[in-house]
Protein 1
Amino acid sequence: MKCPTCSSKRTASVSLTDGLTAQKCENCDGQWIPHKNYEAWQKSLTEIQAEKPFTEVQFEVEDQTGARLCPDCGKILLKYKVGHGLNFFVDYCSACGGIWLDKNEWQALEAQNLHDELHRIFSTAWQKQIREENLAQTMESVFKKRFGEESYSKIKDIREWINEHPQKDQLLAFLTE
Ligand SMILES: [Zn+2]
Ligand SMILES: [Zn+2]
């Protein structure tokens, strides 16, 4: 394998977890998971393993920028944001399904228990959810700035209370009278 990040050819087979092998670049510590490896591992997973709780460990992740080519089929790798508390991108080959992880990304995914859901990160539904999460966070900071921390927290409580009230419509009508 030629490393898509640093072009090194010094690679070694490594076991990411039980039943999943990747090619690791010995120069930059990035890891390539061929689609067939990932698929076979997914099939072997049991429900019990998926129930593992989150751990609080943080990993330093060095996201590399720049275009990369798939080491298996030569197509351009696409970047997908992970989200859910992880602020980095995973590279994915939409042609052959291979996955590229930079140094420590696997460990970070594993700590958040997202490693066995890697394939879902590349789905439209996952990406849409992240955009909505980001938008909600942006709006929150906009309103905080506009109203001030204290008023914002107060108006948020009121909004919540109204939304859950059985006479919501009447309350709103009263407020805007
Ligand atoms: Zn490398
Ligand atoms: Zn490929």
Protein 2
Amino acid sequence: MYKPIRDLDKHLINIQQLSDISTHSYHIYLLATDMDGTLTKNGKFTSQLLNTLERLSTAKIPVLIVTGRSAGWVSAISSLMPIAGAIAENGGLFYLSDNSDPVTLTHIPDLVNHRQDLAKTFVNLQTYFPQIQESADNLFRVTDWTFDLTSLTTEELQKIGNLCQQMGWGFTYSNVQCHIQPPGQNKAVGLLKVLRQYFPTYFPEQVITVGDSPNDESLFNQRYFPISVGVANIRGYENQLQHQPTYITTAAEGDGFCELCSYILENCQM
Ligand SMILES: [Mg+2]
């Protein structure tokens, strides 16, 4: 069911700082975007978003959703939305839009043991933070383990991250969930593997990454993605990000994504 992907660590890297998207010599782009808080508005997809995605599809601008949501969710989203594909679990798995079989992006030798180890780690965290509760969609996950973000302070999240690291796990969080995950698994690593394998004709300068939260931070790393965009609500996390987006939209959430896409559709096509 789960197909391994060949090791793609030797990806092309091009370091470049751009002053304005429209001045770039490339005119064909691929959009790699977060979903919650970036495509949604108050937690929902809007008619404006679906219209925008259809316009991008008509213009032959591929859209990849890169989300922390579970394999179960993303399997459906990649099939139902007018997109090229979707990456689930912050870089854990990839679904091409026309193929329901997921591709694992993180190598996990024994899935049963992996889930058991994640469960033990979560129980251990609960001894420090008894209030944390497993997320409803955790049942539909393959590579990571999630619990709800509710009422955790920035300091508590930092402590949870340190505890996960001590137990040999990675940790990240978004505007909705906290993720215990394999070390080194993040959106950028997963996206780079997918780009190399499935979209090899696109240079890094042609990939525009978009996000709104700390779990999008790797997508803002200019070493890998010279053009990154935060929707306006990213400003709430500015002090928590090691990598800042190159651009920030005026509007927040899905409205910010549509703002960016209108700009691309009007200014960046041949
Ligand atoms: Mg988000």
